[in-house]
Design brief:
Blueprint (H helix, E strand, L loop, with lengths): L1 E2 L14 H5 L17 E2 L3 H11 L5 E8 L5 E5 L11 H13 L6 E6 L3 E5 L8 H13 L5 E7 L14 H5 L15 E7 L8 E4 L11 E4 L2 E3 L6 E6 L5 E9 L5 E6 L3 H15 L4 E7 L8 E7 L3 H10 L3 H13 L3 H10 L5 H15 L7 E2 L11 E2 L1 H12 L4 H6 L21 E8 L2 E10 L3 E10 L5 H17 E2 L4
Parallel strand pairs: 2-22, 6-7, 7-15, 10-13, 11-13
Antiparallel strand pairs: 1-12, 3-4, 3-21, 5-6, 5-16, 8-9, 8-14, 12-13, 17-18, 19-20, 20-21
Length: 498
Amino acid sequence: MVVACSRSGKLVGAIAAMAMVAGLEVSGQPSLAQGEPEPICEEALAGAIDEIRLNHGPGSRWGILVESLGGDRTFYRREAQQYFLPASNVKLLTTAAALTHLGPDYRVRTSVYRTETGLQIVGRGDPTLTGEHLETLAQQVAAAGVTHVGELWLDASYFPGEAVNPRWQWEDVQAGYGAPANSAIVDRNEIPFTLHPQEIGEPLRVEWEREEDGSPGRWWLDNRSRTVAAEESEWLRLGRGFRDPMITIEGELAAGSEPAAVSVAQVYPNEAFLDHFWRQLQAQGLPVGSRRITEVPRLVKGVEIAAVDSPSLGSLVERTNRVSDNLYAEVLLRWLGVTASPELLSEEESSGRPLAAAERGLQVMSRVLAQLGVDEELFQVNDGSGLSRVNWVSPQALVQTLQGMARSPQGSLYRASLPVAGESGTLRYRLGDSPVAIQAKTGTIAGVSALSGYLEHREYGTLTFAIMVNQSTRSVSEQRAAIDDIVRLLTQVRPCSG
């Protein structure tokens, strides 16, 4: 996992081409405002887009579709029904299905039950849960009159199946942005820390964001980094053990430069969750006997004595699309799976093969999108976030999703969740010179860039568009510049008489 930091110290994936390798969404640099662009005739639009596409270099494969919101008018299409790697544009499908199937007010609850032998805490995949929430639960337990805990159980069975997609690349699995989406999530299932430059030649100093992560024996560090002179290039590479709590740090930061905030994914998230809650109970003066974890549902014989509710699904969808949050997207997919219809569950039972929550979620997603008018033959997805390199989505499927959600009761919330060009999220520093409003979802993995969304045209009303480039050998910034130039053409096109 190659990472770099901005001068503010925030982890932003990797600069330039490295961003594709890291699989992160990066906003980029502010663009300079320009004057009102020259209009181009509608008849000249295809040629102008083709020129940008062809100038991007040989080998690059483009899929583009631009239609009116109602789908009754097509302004440009190229390989619109062919499969492309969509990167984080998959989140458009995931969030559309989640809003439609679950509704914007859907919430889950993390509960603590008093049992005959002690306590049982049940996680239901709340991706926003923090150590402070576990402290609140422990306080509620103490207030309920509990004085000691014989057995402390964690029920981590809510999401059956793998917490990490088995088809993700290893560099993504190690990274904080690829953290596992299990039933019991705390602090995003990340291990955050900051790397500080020292004197030239010395290794970077590691500062743990959470003091307990730096406790002896919790994590072993193989720190091969060093501090270099200001004129030398800066880079970082982080590695994490597959099953062992080992973090490898390589790279260079300049002496006197800003520190770099980085993170890796938890190796054992269930154990980390239970350990954190155990420490919170200890802090309340509640001794605990044994600690156990089950991933098989247990019949709870007791009463709920403590609980914390998640934020609304609507607010989670906003973060998922606005900043391209992979963990949130993977949780939304699994929530779809655990709320599948009885009909789907009976089909699964008759097949004799129980599905993981994510697998079942993909089936629910497909059916919900079909109800929105999306052709099921035009997409095949493997995860909820877009990190997988076996996701296949056509430009037409993305445009149909955008159009279907525009007709939906959740349409305004869905559209409001998208980044606004020049203003917010992953589009904050892109297309800021646009004379019209653009709300769109970005996508970036190695060799892939995508942008799909809505554009408010002065002559034609709302346009829906999907632009994807695959197999590109150009840098991330060049890929995005080409896509942005195509979008600028859409803002310039006008009907021409004669």
